[in-house]
Write a sequence for this structure.
């Protein structure tokens, strides 16, 4: 079980690192990336599995230093906070442009509609990319403070 925990931990770390790189490139290029979102979601799933495996190991009597548990649990919290920021991205962009709703965007010329959509996607990508970086750092730190 410990070996599975280690393998899933490395996978979670790698997926989040790759998601960060892909997300950063997409953010700088101002282009949405399906590969980013798929990699990010795979990384998030791996983090959840990793935390569950860690919980099982704890219940089985395996122990680690308290910092390992902290660094192992924080990626879940970072992910939840990032999801909240992502969900508020559209409203923040609309508010900044003085638009009341998505229906107000539909009334804009096509080029301006595209600008709004790109701005929303870029903000979502940015917040989730930064979260992937933080999660990567936390997972790396968790791996270095096991005992």
């Amino acid at each position: 079980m410990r070996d599975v925990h280690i393998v899933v931990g490395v996978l979670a770390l790698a997926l989040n690192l790759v998601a960060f790189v892909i997300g950063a490139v997409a953010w700088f290029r101002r282009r949405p990336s399906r590969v980013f979102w798929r990699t990010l979601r795979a990384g998030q799933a791996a983090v959840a599995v990793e935390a569950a495996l860690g919980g099982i190991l704890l219940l089985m009597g395996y122990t680690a230093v308290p910092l390992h548990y902290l660094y192992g649990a924080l990626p879940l919290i970072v992910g939840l906070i990032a999801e909240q920021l992502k969900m508020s991205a559209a409203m923040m962009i609309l508010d900044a442009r003085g638009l009341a709703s998505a229906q107000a965007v539909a009334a804009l010329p096509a080029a301006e509609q595209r600008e709004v959509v790109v701005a929303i996607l870029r903000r979502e990508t940015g917040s989730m990319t930064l979260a992937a970086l933080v999660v990567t750092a936390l997972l790396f730190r968790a791996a270095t403070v096991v005992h």
Observations:
- The chain has five helices and no strands.
